[in-house]
Amino acid sequence: MDLPSRHYPGSRYRQFAIIGSWIARTMAVNQPSRRVMEKCGLAFVRGYHFDDVPAIPGAEQGEVEYALTRAEWQAGSLPQ
């Protein structure tokens, strides 16, 4: 668990070691990214919208957030 923190100081690996969870976000319409997050064991947390929607197709559908806690990761409860 400590290995990535040493090799990538200041990275998201360190964030995981400190707060104990991974958080990932993507556009709601980005199904390939959402599927990767799910296959990695992250679970859907919430959907949300920004006040200033960028001019990107699908942006009006908002963003989604997925998370995986340290306890879930250590339990090895990843989808097959």
Q: Can you offer a commentary on this structure?
A:
The protein has 80 residues and is an alpha+beta fold. It is built from four helices and three strands; from the N terminus they run ααβαββα. It has helices at residues 3-7, 12-19, 31-39, 70-75, and strands at residues 21-27, 43-48, 63-69. The longest helix is centred in the middle third of the chain and has 9 residues, at 31-39. The two termini are 22 Å apart. The model is unreliable at 1-11 (pLDDT under 50).
Tell me the strand order in the biggest sheet.
1-3-2
Strand residue percentage: 25-35%
Cα-based radius of gyration, to the nearest Å: 15 Å
Mean pLDDT: 78
Low-confidence stretches: 1-11
End-to-end gap: 22 Å
Number of helices: 4
Shape verdict: elongated
Largest sheet: 3 strands, antiparallel
Helix content: 25-40%
Order of helices and strands: HHEHEEH
Number of strands: 3
Given helix and strand content, the structural type is: alpha+beta
Quick rundown:
By secondary structure, the protein is α+β, with helices and mostly antiparallel strands. It contains four helices and three strands.
